[in-house]
Amino acid sequence: MTFTFRPVDPLKDAQVLHSWVTHPKAAFWMMQDARLEDVERAYMEIAADEHHHALFGLRGGEPVFLMEKYDPAHRELVGLYEARPGDVGMHFLTPATDTPEHGFTRAVITAVMAHLFEDPAVERVVVEPDVRNTAVHALNAAVGFVPEREIDKPEKRALLSFCTREQFKKAVTA
Q: Which domain of life is it from (predicted)?
């Protein structure tokens, strides 16, 4: 599967984002009760933030997943671990579908990681999924993430995990 990326346009893309983040499948995104305006506002804040970026993954020009990348020294994980130069934080969301495609989510996380590592300044990717999100833990492990420890964030108990460029290459070429 081949994907391309483009920045999210908070106003133009709000309807699509709203349908994705409020779906029960996206419970770990923590926007279940968000109104359209809430989603617009949240993504306008991201668009204005030099340390946080939202991108759509596209297939055939159509949005098929969402990824966010952030600087963990300035967002999400400040004070929760010792950020290193070259660290980048990541979230991704595949929308609910009535016609699941085998291997799609694995292809998405692989494309997200490859996209992040295209930047030569990125040394490792940091994630902090909810400890209860076992499906994403398995996906993370499949692309080379190694859990370090559980941490308490204001909104959740999270599994802090890391993946270096080398760990990613080894995992996806194995």
A: Bacteria
